[in-house]
Automatic annotation (TrEMBL):
Protein name (Swiss-Prot/TrEMBL): GGDEF-domain containing protein
Keywords attached to this entry: Membrane, Transmembrane, Transmembrane helix
Tree of life domain: Bacteria
Occurrences of domain EAL (ranges): 23-273
Parent-protein start and end of this portion: 341 to 615 of 623
Length: 275
């Protein structure tokens, strides 16, 4: 037991070192990949539930690596946030995403995700707008998704940023709705254009009666505030029917379309055009 006690002490530090090393390796690779414009936007369809029509795409960052493995955003966004690279990464993905979206029908929107730390940047809206102006991309086609957890950190900055994004013509969505500590407060205080119900509620629709009641309460609240609702994480047809009946106008999820590469989006939209 004496030995074990000492070991706990000795083994802890090498573990921390390993984690710090892992992060600094990823951070260096992140910088290199940004320099080489190596990140790729993927696009998940946003669908109008009543018609099944695609109304736009959410851009989701992917990091394709030389070894063929693709790294998801949960692995590298936190490191980009901590190392201060997130703004530049976002602008790079925005640039590529908008250029690719210009090929699509002009009625289709594109939505991007903003990190909580970016809400502190008083020039965020201007930086985004500079990219849109350079590409001649209409701000009305761009949606900005802000996760609810971001708002707890700094509601004042969030309000200023949301207002300036909206003043420039962009649409702002409250993402992961229902997972924060004061969801209703956020809706009351901040001028969102739509809300996205977190997929944890959608997932539990069948199995958990409370989730059904919560989704019903959210949609009725949203409708009285005139806010369209998007349900995330739809994985089966039953959920499409159920959510439509509950008053969700829009949906997103593997059943309606997985995140797609630009090549896959082109094929999909060509197919739609042919009828
Ligand atoms: P999110 O904004 O909530 O995006 C939805 C996530 O759910 C995506 O994961 C998507 O692939 C996944 N998803 C979609 N439909 C389904 C479904 O039916 N079932 C299940 N189980 N999952 C589904 P992904 O691409 O791994 O992104 C994870 C999170 O990373 C995103 O959550 C978003 O918060 C963040 N993220 C992604 N791209 C960016 C980015 O460019 N910038 C920033 N700041 N964050 C990003
Ligand atoms: Ca999102
Ligand atoms: Ca979400
Ligand atoms: Ca999420």
């Amino acid at each position: 037991a004496k030995e074990g006690g000492r070991c706990q002490h000795r083994c802890f530090e090498p573990l921390m070192d390993a984690e710090i090393k892992r992060r600094s390796v990823i951070e260096r690779e992140l910088r290199e990949t940004m320099l080489a414009d190596g990140f790729r936007p993927y696009y998940q369809p946003l669908v109008e539930l009543a018609s099944g029509r695609i109304v736009g795409f959410e851009m989701l960052a992917r990091w394709p690596r030389a070894d063929g493995v693709e790294i998801g955003p949960d692995q590298f966004i936190p490191i980009a946030e901590e190392s201060g690279l997130i703004n530049e990464l976002m602008l790079q993905l925005l640039d590529r995403g908008c250029r690719e979206a210009l090929e699509w029908d002009a009625a289709l929107s594109i939505e991007i995700n903003i990190s909580p730390v970016q809400l502190k940047d008083p020039w965020l809206a201007e930086k985004i707008l500079a990219t849109l102006t350079r590409l001649n991309f209409p701000p009305q086609r761009l949606g900005i998704e802000i996760t609810e957890n971001a708002l707890i950190v700094d509601a004042d900055n969030a309000r200023r940023t949301i207002e300036s994004l909206k003043n420039q013509g962009m649409k702002v969505a409250l993402d992961d709705f229902g997972t924060g500590y004061s969801s209703l407060q956020h809706l009351r205080m901040l001028p969102f254009d739509k809300i996205k119900i977190d997929r944890s509620f959608v997932h539990a629709l069948d199995s958990d009666g409370d989730s059904l009641k919560i989704v019903r309460a959210i949609t009725s609240l949203a409708s009285s505030l005139d806010l369209p609702v998007v349900a995330e994480g739809i994985e089966c047809e039953a959920a499409v029917q159920q959510l439509g009946a509950l008053g969700c106008a829009f949906g997103q999820g593997f059943h309606l379309g997985r995140p797609l590469s630009i090549e896959q989006v082109r094929d999909l939209l060509r197919g739609c055009g042919d009828g």
